[in-house]
Amino acid sequence: MSRPFLMVAPNGARRSKADHASLPLTLAETLATARACHAAGADALHLHVRDETGAHSLDAGRYREALDELARTLPKMRLQITTEAAGVFEVNEQLACLKALRPPWASVSVREIARAPELAAHLYATCEDNKTEVQHILYDATDVALLQDWQARGIIRPKQTSVIYVLGRYTSGQASKSDDLLPFLAAHKERQDWMVCAFGPEEHICLLAAAKQGGSLRVGFENSLVSDTGTPHKDNAASVSALIAQLERIPA
After folding, report:
1. Which of 1, 170, 171, 201 is packed most tightly, with the most Cβ within 10 A?
2. Mean local confidence (pLDDT), 173-198
């Protein structure tokens, strides 16, 4: 089969060096990780930035610095920022980040934006006006239903159709199984541009199942630090390389 579009999510909002020594936190570490993952075959980077203490940040200045450096050194790698609240930021702060930064691509959780539904239409209109491509983060079939409702009501704009299905985020121990994808596919039959990420040691197994269904993939330390045997990956690039090797063994 042809290799699907592959994004790497190298750190996330919550993990630290205590979880894995190779998890990138600083800009220099993120740049080095991005270079290694791109060389290993990753097409895109899902970017989180941290503040001076290593905590999750939505600071537009930090994002702008990182995006500028990444674009300069890796012009062929697509870049996506996260607007994840991570229990820290309110919807007005997520919107402020998007307004100030005007990023080319951003992931947005419909579940998080629903905390302030009066701001939802403004947020999606801001992205449309600023030509920010939106990837909607969906954690379960209820999120799919919310997405469809907002699309039908015109809150989400017609071209904002891209989604990522997140497997295992709210399961016991954040461990996903490949069958966790099935409720998403059943609930979202009109899906177009869709991607999958999966928490836990069966990350690659889940991603292989998604690839067979025609989905794009997101891999990396935000979602799993280990292989399906429980062996820690050396770094994000090693996880990317291992997944690509598995994808190449799928019959055409």
Report:
1. 201
2. 96
